[in-house]
Design brief:
Blueprint (H helix, E strand, L loop, with lengths): L12 E7 L2 E7 L31 E3 L20 E3 L19 E3 L48 E6 L4 E8 L2 E8 L4 H10 L32 H26 L20 H9 L5 H19 L2 E4 L1 H14 L3 H7 L8 E5 L26 H8 L3 E6 L11 E2 L3 E2 L15 H8 L5 E6 L5 H7 L2 E4 L23 E6 L5 H9 L18 E4 L14 H18 L4 E2 L8 H6 L10 H4 L7 H8 L8 H9 L10 H21 L3 E5 L20 H9 L3 E8 L6 E7 L5 H15 L9
Parallel strand pairs: 10-11, 10-14, 17-18, 17-19
Antiparallel strand pairs: 1-2, 2-6, 3-8, 4-5, 6-7, 7-8, 9-11, 12-13, 14-16, 15-16, 15-20, 19-21, 20-21
Length: 749
């Protein structure tokens, strides 16, 4: 048997799963060791080993690497006790004792604790008043040494009732599994005990340890709640029916959008393949004319625009004139000295149709704003111009930049450069599309719930959601409500990860000096956490296995190259991502009708009906957003609003603490590759993966890792870091680009 080590905080959660004749119950144990709690055990001296041969009723599988921190827990209850003794006797109790001696027993006793003031730790779990606060003291004997210094050890216990009346206790952490089978003839009371311990869902617990592993398989999380309740069974059945219905409808719609791959003209101009830093350096050295690079990009845009419909307004004449002016000034030694200090001299860029660029359209795809142009530049555009960059035009977005598909009734839809039958994402979809098609090099995007990272995922580019406050957010339409300031940021979309720091420094100006973007990152000292799903939202799509495989390829590389052992975690409250986002959409903060209707009033349901036949001036996603504004999450007086606001405030600092100074968190950007056109209305919940980074107020970078073999579509994932540690996630993305190649040109005819 193995000595089990536990950290200073473990988590208690039990989950019952019913599947045919199988009944599974999951208990995660979490509780901080308090000095005020009585200790009934003493430390085992380092190096002390006890070897014993144990008899087991059924079977015991023990991973030799299993170790617990020697932390002491005790768990008592009036309902019943489970005893699993590995000496061949089963007494119906599991009782963990850490008295410094190895007795070959796994014992759990549930004890009452009286004082509520012991819940001051952030890792402590609130248990329903009908069930006493659980404190479990755990210790098992093994042929391994005790390591009292091991940190962040996680534990899961699954109890599965099988037809043969055996109990399977599974202690699961990323590196260890212990399985014990024994007779359950005397454990009828255990079910009642386990049902009591999970009367509260994780969402109702005031705190949770972030690194506890609830499940590594998203499909199991469909049955996270106690399924012994018939109401919950109906909910799960309804969810499964919804998912099946969604899958069926999407497949039917896809039949009307056959794949259109290899439709773009080839990239024959080598200048289009240069990075921003390479272009600037060549212009400054006289190796490249600024006019030549701008002309090359304009020609490329004109050749791909008929297929992609990515650009909605341009300033080509002004761009050529500016390029010629730069070339002339470089001939003058006095002027050239000044120009050569500009970090983006002669680099072309584009901007999404929601950020002000003087003289160009500012409509956000809203039909009633047709022809309206920006009267002045936003601060980020001013900074780009002052750095020597040259704007080429404005790109398409969803209506009011409030959806994940760049399709609107003013300009139409934008098509994916890798397959014209698929979407480009949103809301910065036109940017991601044009950059991937080699029609632009740097794009100005905004991100309130993944608007930079989703297009980067679908179009195979690199996009960075910045830490708040470092890039000025102004000149935007629609004007963001005050509550959005904790979610909204501007950031760059680039074809090459190596251009991200340069673009970000220019976007934010001197304010970005605090980010130390030029400071090298020691990858060997980096910590890597990863999640394969969003924590268990049953309404999101299952994660494409190819995305998970892609993540594991990168994990394997960092282990082999830098000796970093990535750690799989599950922050299960991430599944409430969209509810967190809903708390900022407070009713009255932003009345969508005011932006899409000339009168400010409309019959939403009548417009929704008309949209089914293409007769409404407003897109369906916006109509649904209007309806959603009346949801409880957006009502500041509702219990749901208060619940998720408090949960978000509690969770955010824990995520920041987990990431620290040098850690990253890998997570799918979107659970699938780019979807087909007209299918996103059924996939709105999938935005939970990107919206959580905005809720947590942490920087995140989408990393592209090439194309899928089957469809030739871009694939990748996001990596997040702590606030102000943008250089950590960007350095991670740059290493991925260096090793795996990054952006791949769309295949041509």
């Amino acid at each position: 048997m193995s000595h089990v080590e536990s950290t200073e905080s473990d988590k208690v959660n039990s989950t019952h799963e019913t599947n045919g004749d199988h009944h599974r119950s999951k208990i995660s144990i979490e509780n901080e060791f308090q000095s005020s709690i009585e200790q009934t055990s003493t430390d085992q001296p380092d190096g002390n080993r006890v070897n014993k041969k144990k008899k087991r009723n059924k079977s015991t599988k023990i991973n030799p690497s299993e170790q617990l921190n020697g932390k002491h827990y005790q768990d008592k209850s009036d309902e019943g006790q489970v005893n699993n003794q590995t000496n061949g006797q089963v007494n119906g109790e599991v009782n963990n004792q850490t008295n410094g001696q190895v007795n070959g027993e796994v014992n759990n006793q549930i004890a009452d604790t009286q004082s509520t003031d012991k819940q001051q730790s952030i890792d402590k779990v609130d248990i329903d008043k009908s069930s006493d606060t659980a404190e479990v003291q755990d210790k098992q004997s093994n042929d391994t040494e005790i390591d009292n210094n091991q940190e962040n050890n996680k534990m899961n216990i699954d109890i599965e009732h099988k037809p043969e009346d055996n109990v399977n206790i599974l202690i699961d952490s990323p590196n260890k599994i212990i399985t014990v089978h024994h007779d359950t003839s005397t454990t009828d009371e255990n079910t009642n005990l386990l049902e009591q311990s999970k009367k509260k869902d994780d969402s109702e617990q005031s705190d949770t340890k972030l690194t506890s592993i609830e499940s590594k398989r998203p499909e199991l999380l469909l049955t996270e709640n106690n399924l012994t309740n018939n109401g919950n069974k109906l909910i799960i059945a309804a969810i499964l029916i919804f998912k099946f219905f969604t899958y069926f409808i999407i497949k039917i719609i896809a039949l009307f959008h056959p794949s259109k791959r290899n439709q773009l003209p080839p990239i024959n101009e080598p200048l289009l393949l240069l990075s921003a830093s390479e272009i600037t350096e060549r212009i400054k050295n006289g190796q490249l004319k600024c006019e030549h690079i701008i002309s090359a990009y304009i020609n490329r845009i004109e050749s791909v625009q008929p297929k992609l419909n990515a650009m909605v307004d341009n300033c080509f004449e002004e761009a050529i004139a500016k390029a010629k002016e730069i070339d002339e000034q470089l001939k003058d030694p006095r002027l050239a000295a000044k120009l050569k200090k500009l970090p983006l001299l002669g680099v072309p860029f584009t901007c999404k149709d929601s950020i002000s660029v003087k003289g160009l359209v500012l409509t956000a795809g809203v039909l009633i704003r047709k022809g309206i142009k920006a009267e002045e530049d936003s601060t980020v555009i001013k900074n780009l111009r002052e750095a020597g960059a040259i704007p080429l035009g404005i790109t398409n977005t969803p209506e009011l930049v409030l959806w994940c598909d760049s399709d609107n009734n003013l300009y139409g839809r934008t098509n994916n450069p890798y397959d014209l039958s698929r979407i480009v994402g949103g809301s910065s979809g036109g940017e991601g599309c044009l950059i991937a098609a080699a029609g632009s090099l740097i794009g100005v995007g905004s991100d309130v719930a993944g608007s930079i990272r989703i297009p980067s995922m679908f179009c195979g580019t690199f996009g960075h959601k910045t830490t708040l406050k470092y890039v000025p957010v102004d000149g935007m339409f629609p004007k963001p409500p005050e509550a959005y300031k904790s979610f909204l940021c501007y950031g760059p979309i680039c074809r090459y990860a190596r251009d991200l720091p340069l673009a970000l420094k220019v976007f934010g100006g001197e304010a970005t000096n605090e980010l130390r973007l030029d400071e090298p990152v020691d990858l060997k000292k980096m910590k890597i956490y990863y999640m394969e799903h969003d924590g268990g939202n049953p309404l999101t799509s299952f994660v494409d296995q190819r995305i998970i495989n892609c993540m594991h390829r990168v994990i394997k590389y960092f282990k082999e190259e830098y000796g970093i052992e990535a750690e799989q975690i599950n922050i299960n409250k991430f599944k409430y991502s969209l509810a967190f986002f809903g708390t900022v959409c407070v009713k009255g903060e932003m009345k969508i009708e005011d932006y899409v209707s000339r009168t400010g009033h409309l019959n939403v349901y009548w417009e929704l009906f008309k949209s089914l036949f293409g007769k409404s001036d407003i897109t369906r996603p916006i109509l649904i957003q209007i309806i959603n504004q009346n949801s409880p999450y957006c009502d500041a007086n509702s219990a749901s609003y208060k619940k998720f606001t408090e949960m978000l405030a509690s969770l955010k600092p824990k995520v920041h603490e987990l990431l620290g100074d040098n850690a990253v968190l890998m997570l799918p950007t979107w659970p699938t590759v780019a979807p087909k056109h007209k299918t996103t209305i059924l996939r709105g919940f999938d935005a939970t993966y990107v919206a959580i980074m905005n809720s947590m107020e942490i920087p995140a970078t989408h990393c592209t890792v090439g194309l899928t073999k089957e469809e030739g579509l871009p694939i990748g994932f996001s990596v997040a870091a702590a606030p102000g540690r943008d250089r950590i996630s960007i350095a991670f993305a740059q290493e991925i680009e260096r090793r795996f190649g990054g952006w791949v040109p769309p295949q041509s005819q």
